[in-house]
Each structure stands twice: as structure tokens, then as C-alpha cells.
Amino acid sequence: MTTDTGPAAPDRGPGRLLRRFTGVDESLLDWVPQERPRYSRLGAIVLNTGLMAAFSLLVALQSVVDVPVAVLIPVALAWGLFIVTFDGWLVATTHGVGSYSRFPVLLPRLLVSLLLGSVIAEPLVLWVFRPAIDAEIMTQRVSEQSEYESRLRLCNSTSGETANPACAGYLLNVASADPIRDELTRTSAQRATVSAEITRYRSAWSKLQETAKAECAGTGSTGRAGEGPACKQLRAEADRYLDLVKTEQTRLNGLDSTILRLNTALGDASEKQEQQTNVAIASRVAEWRAADGQIGLLDRAAALTRLGERSGAVMAAQWLLRMLFILIDCLPVLTAFLGRGTTYDQLLSRRLTTARLIHDQKIDLRERQEAAELALRVRKAEAYRRREMDDLDAGERSDRAAREAGVDEQIEALAARLRGDPVTWRVPPARPKRAEQPGIFAAERATHP
Predict the structure, then answer these.
(1) What number of other Cβ atoms are within 10 A of residue 66's Cβ?
(2) Which helix (H) or strand (E) holds 439?
(3) Distance of CA 204 to the CA centre of its chain
(4) Hey, is 225 helix, strand or coil?
(5) Strand, coil or helix: what is 431?
(6) CA–CA separation, 157 and 172 (whole Å)
(7) Per the record, which residues fall in region Disordered (predicted)?
(8) N or C: which end of the chain has fewer CB atoms below 10 A?
(9) Phi and psi, residue 217, nearest 5°
């Protein structure tokens, strides 16, 4: 507990580990140990949210990939760790925020939590309704498979019926009996034509026979009995129709033989086509079934939507469950959003304000120190410049005086020679060399080469 002279002793219990998920400063929390349970429970909420997210991803991955669960657990734990880290960051950014400024700070974080919670909640909702969803998917797949098989049989019928234009993509590559069926149809049409001709010829022959009998008996058109020209002509015409009947009958018999042969061939071809069609349809249906593969997230989501459309109770239950999971994922931020500011927040805000003020004062002090140093260096540079200028002026005056003295000596020597006096040559004394002054710039060069 807090003493009159300082903070409470540091907490070394399991609650300290939970509070690490919330990003609190334990040294500052030691001043208000009464709020340790609050932040410990907040850390437990963050941890539970991460565990829920890990389980959600594990459920989702099991619906997508067909691998052992032991392989998926590390991936799910990594996702859970990310959620714990992210939620911990969201909570940590709310520390030290005052009561009046909490809403604009927490609202964006709450929206992010809602989005993330929606992603996490969906696999859990599908997992809860999994038995009903799997049954719906299997029923749907069986129905689609049956419809697909029916379409294949309709579009590849062995009865020779014309296929529907919608059968594009459903036709099978099997040996068809249609050529034999077409030939049988043509042959049957020819037989019908020949049979009609035979009937017509028989009718004409029968009429001519009666007319010829009447003519030969003398009851015909001429009224003369006996085989006269008219009688013979009528019999000849009757015999011609009889020959036509015999010829067409022979042709009809041939067509009947052909039809019998084609019917036998059509039966064999139809049976073979039906067998090949059944094999091809079974293969297509097997490919269809294999293409369905493992039930995935999208399949389950679509199945749950269909269940909800058929039942209002299922629709209400799934949305209530989904909202519950989203609410659980948003609990870390909601706790900070709905709760009032704590003493820890006030202490942290005060510490942050103090740190900012101290930092600003240190920066101001450093600016002042650097400005003073620069001003001093400028003054030193000016002093050094003045000394150098004075030395240069003194040197120039000394050189000028030396030159004037030399000129005077040369004039005196020239005058002495003109007078005839002996000349004594004297070397003028050398001007003393001016001492080198290092100055401030030399010091600067030594310090900053």
C-alpha cells in the first residue's frame, strides 16, 4: 500500500504479467496500487480476446486446408499474439487521456476493433452452426448432383429425340445410334411409299380386270362378246398393273428385310450407346463430386445464408451470436471507452506534461548556451581581426621607415663619392621578423581540423 513518503512495494504476482498486455507503467502504478486489479482484469480481457482470435483462425484454417491440426496451431497462436499486441496497443494509447477528450481519441480505435471483431466472429459463428450447415451443404450438393445427372441423361437420350439447345456443354462423346435410326426412318418412309403404290396399283388392276371381263363378255362399252381388240387392250393394261404390283411387292419385301436388319442393328447400337452413356455420365458425375472437394468457408457462409432465409429463428440466432463475438473482441477498447478516467491516467498525464515541459526547458537552455558560445566566438574573432590589423599596420610602418633610412644612406654615399671621400659600405640591419600570433582561428583549426 502507498505510504506517506513514497509508492507501494512493486507487485511481483501474476497480475503484473496480465497488466503488461495493457502497457501500464508499473513504477507509476505503484503510487496507486488500488487500481492494480482494474488493469489486471483489463489485461485478462486482452489475453482472452487473443485466445478467441486464435481459435477462430484455427477453425477457419481447418475449413480451407486439409492438414493435421498440429500444423495449424502455431499459425493460430501467431494470429492470437498479433491480436493481443494490437489490442494492447489500442488500450495503451488511451492511457493518460482525460475524461473530456476520451471520445474523439477512442472512437477511431473502437471502429478498428469493430472491423477486426467482425473478421474474428464469422468463423466462430460458422463453427457453432456447423452441424446444420454441413447437412444443408450435403443436401444442396446431392440436389445439384441429381440435377446435373438428369440434365446429362436428358441431353444424351438414346431415344433419338432432338436435344434441347440448352444442352451445350452437357453432350457426351459416345457412339451414337442416330445414323442407324436415321437410315431406318428413311427406309420406313420408302416402305410406306411403296406400300401405298402397291395398293394403288392393286386397285387399278382390280378395276381393269372387272372392265376387261365385262368387255369380253359383251357387257362392256362395245357390246361385243369375245376377245376383241377392246377386250385384249383392257387385259393388257390389267396385266401391266399386275406386273407393277409384283415389281413393287418385290421391292417391298426387300425393304422389309432391310427394316428388320436395321431394327436389329438399332437395338444393338442403342444398347451399346446406353452402356457408354451410363459410363460417361457416371464419370462426369464423379468428376462433379470430386470438384466439390472439402467444404470451405464460402460454402458454409452460403449455406448459413440459405438457412437464415428459410428460418427467421436461425437468422436472429446467428446475428445475435455474431454481435456477441464482436462485442467480446471490442471489450478492451469498450472498457476504456465506457470507463471514467482513473487516477493512474491523471498521474500519467501529469508525468507526460512534466516531461514535455522539462524537455522544452532543456531545449531552450541548450539553445541559449549555443547562442552564447556563438556570440563569444564572434567577439573573439573580431578581437583577433583587430590585433592582426594592428600588427599589419605596425609592420608596414616599420618597413616604410627602413626603406626611408636606406634611401638616406644611399644619398649620403653618393654625395661622399662626388666629394671624393672614401666610401664605406654598410649592410643595413635586417628588420626583425614579426612574431606569429595563432589567434582564435588557429585554435578553432586545432579543435576542428
Answers:
(1) 8
(2) helix 439-447
(3) 86
(4) strand
(5) coil
(6) 10
(7) 425-449
(8) C
(9) -85, -5
Name the nearest CA neighbour of 233 among 205, 202, 208, 203. Answer: 208
What average pLDDT does this structure show over 315-343?
A: 81
Sign of dihedral through CA atoms 396, 397, 399, 404? Answer: positive
Residues 140-197: tens digit of each pLDDT: 888 888 888 888 888 877 665 545 677 777 777 777 777 888 888 899 999 999 899 8
Element (H, E) at 154: helix 130-155
Q: How far apart are CA 190 and CA 258, in angstroms?
A: 11
Bridge partner list, 225: 217
Q: How confident is the model at residue 5 (pLDDT cuts 50, 70, 90)?
A: low
Helices (H), 9-129: 14-20, 26-29, 36-64, 69-92, 102-128
* Amino acid found at 301: A
* Cell numbers representing residue 96 in the block: 493518460
Distances (CA, A) of 105 to 100, 116, 329, 336: 10, 18, 19, 11
Give the residue among 55, 53, 58, 77 at the shortest CA–CA distance from 69: 58
Task: State the Cα–Cα distance between residues 61 and 76, nearest whole angstrom.
Answer: 9
